[in-house]
Amino acid sequence: MAEEAISAELRPGWRRPDGTHVAALELRLAPGWKTYWRAPGDAGIPPVFDWSGSRNARTLSIAWPVPHVFRQSGMRSVGYSDRVVLPLMISPGAPGDVELSAEMQLGVCKDICLPATLRISGTLPGAGARPDPVIAAALASRPFSASEAGVRGVTCRVAQDGHALRLTAEIEMPTLGRDEETVIEARNPEVWVAEPDTRRAGGTLTAETRLEHVDGRPFALDRSGLRITVIADGQAVDIHGCTG
What share of the chain is helix, strand, coil (3-state, %, to 5)? Predict the structure, then answer.
């Protein structure tokens, strides 16, 4: 049933002069269904991608477009509905074609949430392909960087709370839009981050949250590894790291 709610198509893209190959996964969802961003929120299922079957792909990263925030039954999730194009930035190991093979484990939700597994493969040509305007539009919809958004500084205060930590992040930045939301990610994937309480006072946006190791044990927090995304009105700002 889950696979009927979502389908994937590989857009082969083009090769840049610097050697980077730009491709994309185009995900289409049945009416009323949604899938999730890299940090899906407490009500979401994190996506997992396996590229190990690919050939001549030395490195690969996803350039995530701005996600949407969904509220349902008092819980927040972060993701996409209808259709989303996920640009892929690939560094080939050698000149020539890239044989891309992906297995995607995604969560899809409507009235219920279900896991879906999709597989896709194809050849990404090493030469001769023109830029794809669909992928170019998706790249243009990525979050702003901190400098582009006018972020002047980010300060993080940390306090012990049993085995967990309380984090208060103060972000000096212009207002992005109405109903600003924040998503905070730790570099350590074994650290769970609760939905932040976000509020604004003048030029400062404050986000407070709780971080806890999935095994319930004490842990050290690297402030430079924190990633804070501010989302509002179809825009987002991607902020890396903060000071103490």
Answer: 5, 55, 40
Q: Do the Cβ atoms of 24 and 88 come closer than 8 Å?
A: yes
> Whole-angstrom Cα distance, residue 207 to residue 172?
11
Q: Which residues contact 191 (CB under 8 A, 6 or more apart)?
A: 211, 212, 213, 214, 219, 221
Helical residues (DSSP H) of 38-178, grouped into ranges: 133-140
**Burial class of 187 by CB neighbour count within 10 A (0 to 12, 13 to 18, 19+):** middle
Task: State the Cα–Cα distance between residues 68 and 144, nearest whole angstrom.
Answer: 15
Instruction: List, in order of start, the domains of the chain with CATH numbers.
Output: 2-142 (2.60.40.1250), 145-240 (2.60.40)
DSSP 167-212: EEEEEE----SSS-EEEEE-SSTTEEEPPPEEEEETTEEEEEEEEE
Which pTM value belongs to this model? 0.93
In tens, the pLDDT along 143-193 reads 999 999 999 999 999 999 888 999 999 999 999 999 999 999 999 999 999
- What is the C-alpha to C-alpha distance for residues 41 and 53, in angstroms, rounded to an integer? 29
Cβ-based neighbour number of residue 1 at 10 Å: 8
Q: Which residues pair with 184 in a beta bridge?
A: 228
